[in-house]
Write a structure and sequence with these properties.
Shape: rod-shaped
Strand content: 5-15%
Number of domains: 2
Radius of gyration: 27 Å
Order of helices and strands: HHHHHHEEEEHEEH
Number of strands: 6
Structural class: alpha+beta
């Protein structure tokens, strides 16, 4: 099972993970309570930190926070005097409980940062695979120009996370369309569009022009009508690079 499949499985079972993150610290503290005479509060706290780390490693922030809070509560209830109450009389036990929750929260944020970095690396690897695959398709030139543009259109659709993308021969004649330029910027009637905030336009298509020198060979019509798509600048530049891969092949068929 690769990283993306594992992330999908975790997301589908998110609610179960959150419930387990609250229940497992309770079970661990109940077991440790049976060995109070031989297990110090410090040792118990370290065991609970491991539980929080396990919850945080799923990449679900709520699960990590729930595990941290649950660990603090049940540590107080089972392992600090007076037992089986939420009152704490010893200052060291108060510090241990507070540190347990704070460390658990910190570990959760560190784990989430690691997951984001891994997801970003996976996306970049996917973009690179798409560009290289398209470049190979162009170099082999085994299919028709229509097959090539359809292949690139599908790659652009996936990279941008939009509903549709199709290639149209010739220049754009409708000024209502937004334009995705070769620096990854999007503008509409010469006014910039804040894609990060507002997403790609949903009422009309966005145009990505394919040129060879000064010649306009065609353009990709990108449609995000059903859902708002907010591709990053990096994603938009990858889409431009994918479109550029087709320019040489299309120029050769003219």
């Amino acid at each position: 099972m690769n990283g993306m499949e594992l992330s999908g499985l975790i997301e589908r079972r998110r609610s179960w993970l959150v419930v387990a993150s609250g229940v497992v610290p309770l079970a661990v503290c109940a077991v440790l309570a049976a060995f109070r005479a031989s297990v110090t509060p410090t040792t118990a706290a370290l065991v609970l930190v491991l539980v929080v780390v396990a919850a945080a490693s799923t990449g679900v922030r709520v699960a990590g926070i729930v595990a941290a809070v649950s660990s603090g509560v049940w540590f107080d209830f089972f392992l600090t005097e007076p037992y089986q109450t939420l009152a704490i009389t010893d200052r060291n036990d108060v510090e241990a409980t507070v540190l347990l929750v704070l460390i658990g929260a910190a570990v959760t944020e560190v784990a989430l940062w690691g997951h984001r970095q891994q997801a970003r690396a996976n996306r970049r690897a996917g973009y690179l695979d798409g560009v290289l695959g398209t470049a190979e398709t162009v170099s082999l030139a085994g299919g028709s120009s229509e097959e090539l543009t359809d292949h690139v259109a599908d790659q652009i659709r996936q990279v941008l996370g939009v509903g549709q993308c199709r290639f149209v021969t010739g220049p754009v004649h409708d000024e209502r369309f937004a334009v995705l330029d070769h620096q990854g910027g999007v503008s509409r009637r010469a006014r910039p569009v804040d894609v990060d905030r507002d997403g790609l336009p949903t009422d009309d298509s966005t145009v990505l022009t394919v040129t060879r020198g000064r010649d306009v060979l065609g353009h990709y019509l990108i449609t995000a009508a059903s859902d708002i798509a907010r591709p990053s600048l990096e994603q938009r530049r990858v889409a431009v690079l994918l479109a550029d891969q087709t320019a040489a092949a299309l120029a050769g068929t003219r």
